[in-house]
Design goal:
Elements: E1 2-6, H1 10-21, E2 25-29, H2 33-40, H3 51-60, E3 64-67, H4 70-75, E4 79-82, H5 97-109, E5 116-120, H6 128-139, E6 148-152, H7 162-167, E7 172-175, H8 179-189, E8 199-202, H9 204-235, H10 239-247, H11 268-281, H12 287-299, H13 303-310, E9 319-323, H14 338-348, E10 352-356, H15 361-368, E11 373-374, E12 387-390, H16 402-408, E13 413-416, H17 423-429, E14 432-434
Parallel strand pairs: 1-2, 1-4, 2-3, 4-5, 5-6, 7-8, 9-10, 9-12, 10-11, 12-13, 13-14
Helix pairs in contact: 1-3, 5-6, 9-11, 9-12, 11-12
Bound molecules: nicotinamide-adenine-dinucleotide.
Length: 453
């Protein structure tokens, strides 16, 4: 099948590559010329495990093409995927300017004799498929209404495991009433659902809401655990035990119960806000989600009062090593990353920071524009630092060389926002160690520098 993917970011590039991998010819289009030039010359633009190999293979086989011309991209395409941004507008609602802008362009390009399916993969509010359809019709000089269908097909991939998620989705959601579109999308998705994972067909509006409901539910689950962690600290309970205790109940499930310093990324924060806004527009106050946003913004800074408290309220002149900048491991994405918020607070309080992240340093530099330094390795970041702060649970941070940490840090102090280490091990090493929802291992600050380790 010939496919066009409009928007070549995290979702677009993964979608295009994975459809090419199953034998389709895919043309990806983007307005960002630099991005397209890079991709055309075989250089991948995002870090996503497993993607580069598929990208190079399919590009070599001429099944994966890149262009800045929307017209060229859609010329032969039977299916056109929209993988465009839907950032939050000023009032929190999803800004549809990218989607509707492209819809208007499509309206001028589609013809009455060439049926195409336009598939919305972006996360969009209920009613967007209707708006896309109307915008296309309005922009067309002739009546093309029976030569295209607009389908809602929200994407559920997770950055960091996006290729796996796309190749083996838990489910594919397709919102449409068009039989022609159902037939085409059934064929297109068949290779991805061979193991019995379902394609669930529904109406457009339900499909659009399903995506928001899924992300918002997960945000509720994380925030609930983060609040339980707060209580654990106050009540002397251990969140790891509580997590295991409730996670073994099938109705609750084990996943998404790990507390930390809040969720980030390009999806949860904006999708929760957008659903709250959509609810308000429909005369409904989504009380749980309003609370979730508040809980998460507090949680992102959960370590800061602990750090201040440890240094008697004053961190002016203190220097911190920060491990992890990406909003989660296995991605270079720093959008809404807790590290952004934490760095801002540390600098505001007069501290300095040297950060390390395996993949996200460049994106962090471009996003944060803050005056911190960056290290080449996780251990280099520790040099001259008063304490180590952990913001992302990259695998390489899980079992570090503790002797090396001890000999490089000025003092044996760790603030761990991802609960990576075992409490008794920290105790045995003599660290002052604070994490989330677990017992603090208390060691008093050693004010003078270590001299001979
Ligand atoms: N990132 C995720 O993990 C994820 C997961 C599921 C759903 N989504 C949703 O998918 C959508 C896309 O997200 P993303 O993370 O891939 O965004 P992104 O910002 O990484 O990529 C969007 C791309 O669209 C391009 N673009 C903007 N206007 C364009 C135009 N007129 N023509 C062609 N290209 C244009 C941008 O240059 C950019 O490359 C959003 O609605 C998001 O909520 C994202």
């Amino acid at each position: 099948m010939k496919i066009a993917v409009i928007g070549t970011g995290y979702v677009g590039l993964v979608t295009g590559t994975c459809f090419a991998e199953t034998g389709n010819t895919v043309t990806c289009v983007d307005i960002d010329k630099n991005k397209i030039e890079r991709l055309q010359s075989g250089r991948i633009t995002i870090y996503e495990p497993g993607l580069e190999k598929l990208f190079l293979r399919n590009q070599k086989e001429s099944r994966l093409l890149f262009t800045t011309s929307l017209k060229d991209a859609i010329a032969d395409a039977q299916v056109i995927f929209l993988a465009l941004p839907t950032p939050p507008g000023e009032d929190g609602s999803a800004d549809l300017k990218y989607i509707l802008g492209v819809a208007a362009e499509l309206g001028q390009m589609l013809t009455a004799d060439d049926y195409k399916v336009i598939v919305d993969k972006s996360t969009v509010p209920v009613g967007t498929a209707d708006k896309v359809r109307d915008t296309i019709n309005d922009a067309s000089a002739t009546d093309i209404s029976s030569s295209f269908d607009v389908v809602s097909n929200p994407e559920f991939l997770r950055e960091g495991v996006a290729v796996d998620d796309f190749m083996k989705p838990d489910r594919v959601i397709i919102g449409t009433n068009s039989e022609a579109a159902v037939k085409i999308l059934n064929e297109l998705y068949a290779p991805f659902v061979r193991q019995g994972n379902p394609i669930i067909f529904m109406d457009e509006r339900s499909a659009e809401l399903t995506k928001y409901a899924a992300n918002s539910f997960l945000a509720v689950k994380i925030s609930f655990m983060n609040e339980i962690a707060q209580l654990c600290e106050k009540m002397g309970a251990d969140v790891d035990m509580v997590r295991r205790g409730i996670g073994s109940d099938d109705r609750i499930g084990k996943r998404f119960l790990f507390p930390g310093i809040g969720y980030g990324g390009s999806c949860f924060p904006k999708d929760v806000q957008a659903l709250v806004k959509s609810a308000t527009e429909n005369n409904y106050t989504f009380k749980i989600l309003e609370a979730v946003t508040e809980v998460n913004s507090i949680q992102k800074l959960h370590l800061v009062p602990k750090i201040l408290n440890y240094y008697g309220g004053n961190i002016t002149g203190k220097h911190f090593a920060l491990w992890g900048l990406a909003f989660k491991p296995n991605t270079d994405d720093v959008r809404e990353a807790p590290a952004l918020y934490m760095v801002e607070e540390l600098l505001k309080n007069g501290a300095t920071v040297t950060a390390f992240d395996p993949e996200a340093i460049n994106n962090f530099k471009n996003t944060c524009k803050c005056n911190i330094s960056y290290a080449e390795t996780q251990y280099e970041a520790l040099e001259n630092a008063d304490a180590l702060i952990i913001a992302t649970e990259w695998n390489e941070f899980r079992t570090p060389d503790f002797e090396r940490i001890i000999s490089t840090l000025k003092n044996k102090v760790i603030f761990d926002g991802r609960n990576l280490f075992d409490i008794s091990q920290m105790e045995a090493f003599g660290f002052h160690y604070e994490s989330v929802g677990r017992r603090k291992v208390s060691m008093p600050e050693i004010p003078e520098l270590k001299t001979n380790i």
